[in-house]
Prior knowledge:
This protein is an all-alpha fold. The protein has a single domain (about 25-470), classed as Hydantoin permease, CATH 1.10.4160. It contains 19 helices and no strands. The model is unreliable at about 1-20 (pLDDT under 50). Bound molecules: 4-fluoro-L-phenylalanine.
Amino acid sequence: MTDLVQNAAGDLAADSSRKDHPMWSSRLAFILAASGSAVGLGNIWKFPYITGENGGGAFVLVYLLCIALIGIPIMIAEVAIGRRGGRSPINSMRQLAQRDGLSKRWVWIGGMGMLASFLILSFYSVIGGWALSYVGNAAQGAFVGADSDTIGAMFGGLLADPIALLLWHSVFMLLVIIIVARGLSSGMEKAINILMPLLFVLLLVMVGYAMNTGNFAQGFSFLFQPDFSKLTTEGVLTALGHAFFTLSLGMGVMMAYGSYLPKKVSIVKTAVTVSVVDTAVALLAGLAIFPLVFANGLEAGAGPGLIFQTLPLAFGQMSGGVLFGSLFFALLVVAAVTSAISLLEPVVEWLEEQKGISRFGGTLIGGISIWALGILTILSLNQWSDVYPLGMFERFEGKTFFDLFDYVTANLMMPLGGLAIALFVGWFMSKQAGENELDLGNGAGYRLFMFVLRYITPAAVLVVFIYNLA
Ligand code: PFF
């Protein structure tokens, strides 16, 4: 009975704090928004380049395992917390801990997540800026007939130019700020509904091109034939971290999105769908890129510039390349923007919940601070490329600000946040809450899920951590 009353009170409070945030109109709307957050630069820019750096197949296999055993269960847990709490991550955690009589310290999951969003968006926007500038390059025909040296020099030129980087970073951040300040309008949602599938189709076209003209067999076996001698413990940590990064997990973003999810939607089915879509996009990107890498004698481990140095070669040679190239980079920008919005949203949602800050004000405060922090990433690419702020620690040797932000968020903060989320839902949150949110009934399905979440997921994260520290 008291539980009932508390729940009712909780729901009421939740409703009053989110009355200007409408619920997602349907399961599909949530799937699109959550996939919009998940699918982004992580799939098309980061996945191929870290796969290249870590030797291919074995890394991909570990990454897929991490998605299945760690990513999907944590996504389910995270969305469930969000839906039950009904507010920004910090306040949802506070609410849930309170309701189940748990320690207030659980709130730090939300706090650490917000800090991670902040750091990630600061460099994410700089890379989004690269994509923006490549829309222009493609449209002006800069890739037409260019060889790999010319394309490489074009990319090198961009990185060496802090003013250009700052300009594109600013444009990207401005786009994100405008969209978040206005709230996702239905027009925006409709546009995304068309643009995301279009990106998927265009990736298929690129894979088709790679099949016809690239070294497809070699690219394919690089991705899917595991050679464990190439896998390092650092590579395993990178794969784990990437599973979190690519699914937007462990930092409250999926919690924030879950807070708008209607009760009747199945969290389990939805989380699986989003994860499958996300993984498919990453693998397609790999299949489009590696055949070109090998056919053109490029370096698979070339690093963050990989897609900016390979795809333009293809666009420069294929018929209709100017159109396809501009469209591809434009869609990459769209994918990046939909992820970036989800990084800014929790910060803004939280600022808004502080009395006296409007949505517009919150967006400006958050957006401008993140923009300013982005300058450190820009300088890491040129003027400060040999400044290693934590270089005195062996783990962080040779890492610029940009490398550090990336490393600390993906490889430390997100897995730690995810671990805490798994432990919270697996061990601490009341059983009734879990059964309520998860619509797995209380039979075998529920028990299997809980087993994975309680034992397998935390153990996997811990093993990777401990191996890496040892
Ligand atoms: N998942 C996004 C991508 O793969 O590009 C990046 C991202 C978005 C990470 C939101 C974390 C996040 F909370």
